[in-house]
């Protein structure tokens, strides 16, 4: 591995891979380094655990009609389910299934919560989302649950102005063989010879000279330009140090755009225990117990005998800290309430995520703290004309998404190429 390159990309998630492939295709001497033993970051399709594909991280092609990764899936022949709504087909209330009027009322409350937050943001109010929620709604716990899935943060720590900046066409398509697998396939197709070195964490970014020097276990790597594509939390916690230190306004931006918690607990069954159509969405909320958090599931995803539960916010973080067994028990209890205790006999395996506990990730995706929506724009500015940033947190309107990360990687690559050669990719 050469110690000197035109561009080094730090991080091989969706953004880093997009940046690397764009530069490689343009003939730039580029190297991608990744601290983990695998590439993809939060775009990770797991096929080893159950023998079938399931996404530990991102799994919906959001805004599918304008999502470049959806177009790439078409080009590569990777199928997805063209179903726009994530709305549950059924809602379990702890001891019974909701009737259709109740199910619709629950989702009207969820949509009303989204609308209230958007309205506040569109008025220019940068306040906590919790301030505009209807706390008297009987479905407030379910509305809060879905807000934490969309933002990874509790409404008290979610900026209305930042939330309103996110744009979504409402088309959310799950990918059959996995969104993580799609991200990998796109990179492999675009630049099969892209040099990527895994297991190579960068401890220090020295931008004191004319170029940039990176301290790694493999020695010092040097480049004219560096693209940093790592999660905000990694930088905010000091996992990636800078010399000189980041300017105060940029350091503040990383602190004010933390990654929240969005986790999953997945179950494999030895048979179809649900008797529902493939890829059925179900919500659960126990109206009998106000202290019990809701959880929603994808049942029989693409026909697999599985249930994948989604956990968000403080509840997700608490369960990760408690351990895999606690996550299993929490998810299985809701499934048993809805489908009967006998389903436990048919559990053939389970798996859990732990993004908040991963020192190389530190959470799910970024959300601006109340009062700090304006700092997101700072991440899009170059640092010392030698360092560019990419990743979902850099995206003004598609943050928290894989395609947002992908697009920022392409934009960083274009900016680097223009600086190096005076031309765009």
From TrEMBL:
Signal peptide: none annotated. Pfam families: Amino_oxidase. The keyword Methyltransferase does not apply. Pathway: Plant hormone metabolism; auxin biosynthesis. SUPFAM superfamilies: FAD-linked reductases, C-terminal domain, FAD/NAD(P)-binding domain. The keyword Transferase does not apply. Residues 15-416 form the Amine oxidase domain. InterPro entries: Amino_oxidase, FAD/NAD-bd_sf, Flavin_monoamine_oxidase. PANTHER family: FLAVIN MONOAMINE OXIDASE (PTHR10742), LYSINE-SPECIFIC HISTONE DEMETHYLASE 2 (PTHR10742:SF410). Belongs to the tryptophan 2-monooxygenase family. This is Tryptophan 2-monooxygenase.
């Amino acid at each position: 591995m050469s110690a000197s390159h035109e561009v080094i990309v730090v991080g091989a998630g969706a953004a880093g891979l997009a940046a690397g492939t764009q530069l490689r295709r343009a003939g730039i001497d580029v190297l991608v380094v990744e601290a983990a033993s695998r590439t993809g970051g939060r775009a990770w399709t797991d096929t080893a655990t159950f023998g079938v594909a399931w996404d530990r991280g991102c799994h919906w092609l959001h805004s599918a009609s304008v999502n470049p990764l959806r177009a790439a899936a078409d080009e590569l022949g990777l199928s997805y389910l063209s179903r726009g709504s994530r709305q549950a087909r059924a809602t379990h209330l702890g001891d019974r299934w909701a009737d259709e009027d109740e199910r619709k009322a629950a989702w009207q409350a969820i949509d009303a919560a989204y609308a209230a937050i958007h309205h506040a943001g569109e008025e220019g109010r940068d306040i906590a989302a919790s301030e505009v929620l209807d706390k008297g709604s009987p479905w407030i716990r379910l509305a809060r649950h879905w807000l934490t899935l969309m933002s990874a943060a509790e409404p008290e720590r979610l900026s209305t102005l930042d939330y309103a900046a996110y744009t979504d066409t409402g088309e959310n398509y799950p990918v059959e063989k996995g969104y993580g697998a799609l991200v990998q396939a796109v990179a492999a197709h675009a630049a099969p010879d892209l040099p990527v070195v895994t297991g190579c964490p960068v401890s220090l970014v020295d931008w004191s000279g004319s170029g940039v020097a990176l301290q790694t276990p493999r020695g010092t790597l040097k480049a004219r330009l560096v693209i940093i594509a790592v999660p905000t939390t990694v930088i905010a916690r000091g996992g990636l140090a800078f010399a000189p230190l980041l300017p105060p306004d940029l350091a503040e931006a990383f602190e004010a755009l933390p990654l929240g918690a969005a986790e999953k607990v997945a179950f494999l069954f030895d048979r179809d225990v649900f008797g529902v159509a493939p890829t059925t969405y179900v919500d659960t909320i126990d109206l009998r117990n106000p202290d019990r958090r809701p959880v929603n599931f994808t049942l029989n995803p693409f026909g697999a005998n599985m249930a994948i539960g989604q956990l968000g916010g403080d509840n997700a973080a608490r369960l990760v800290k408690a351990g895999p067994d606690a996550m299993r028990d929490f998810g299985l209890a809701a499934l048993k309430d809805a489908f009967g205790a006998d389903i436990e006999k048919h559990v053939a395996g389970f798996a859990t995520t732990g993004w908040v506990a991963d020192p190389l990730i530190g959470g799910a995706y970024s959300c601006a703290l109340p009062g700090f929506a304006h700092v997101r724009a700072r991440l899009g500015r170059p640092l010392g004309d030698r360092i560019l940033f990419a990743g979902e947190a850099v995206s003004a309107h598609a943050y928290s998404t894989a395609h947002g990360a992908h697009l920022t990687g392409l934009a960083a690559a274009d900016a680097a190429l223009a600086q190096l050669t005076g031309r765009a990719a």
